[in-house]
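CO-FOLDING WORKSHEET

Operator: S.A.
Ligand of interest: zinc ion
Run index: 201
Mode: holo prediction, single chain
Checklist:
[x] sequence pasted
[x] SMILES validated
[ ] output reviewed
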Amino acid sequence: MCTKEKLVEYYSWLRKYGYNDSHSGNASFRDQNTIWVTPSGACADTLQAKDLVACSMEGLTGENASFDARLHVEVYKQNPSARALLHSHGPHSIAVTMNGKDFAPEDFEGKLYFPKVPVLNIPFAEYSEKSPDLIARILREHCITVTRGHGVYACGKSLDLAYKWTCSLEHSAKISCLGRQINSNNHVSSTISKSSFTAPH
Ligand SMILES: [Zn+2]
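OUTPUT RECEIVED:
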């Protein structure tokens, strides 16, 4: 069951294990018609349960709620089974989707969980206006999405599931990044090695 203490704990793990920096990302869970959201500019190292801000399914966002509070409410409105939403800035998840294309994991587990991870291109200047509806629409059908150059939004029936999707995507993205790097290094070495054979003496 989601509690305010659990939300704080998961939010701190996002920071502790490298999915966020000290003050990035945000998180929420739904308890009937109340949505508890991290406050604006929350520090994951010092956040406490009493700091969480109550928002309502009707769209009323509490004072000092996260910049993304409206987005959180919209996700719960459009996906009635969602009970938790985590937003994070996993470096590999962001890096591997910088091309703006949907991401298809190459490893076994990633393929199993996410045959396709939708990537949204939302201009930064229009982010606060457009992101709530665009992200909520995607999270009706998918458990996770990435906004290009920004970060990851994962929802689930529990905090644990939203956390699992976040961690799994970052792991798959890391494997893809490493694979591309190794392939690129091999290509460079083979080009150098070929040119050394053909270079005139
Ligand atoms: Zn963010």
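REVIEW:
Residues 4-184 form a domain with the L-fuculose-1-phosphate Aldolase fold (CATH 3.40.225.10).
Strands lie at 26-31, 34-37, 53-56, 84-88, 119-120, 144-147, 151-156.
[x] output reviewed
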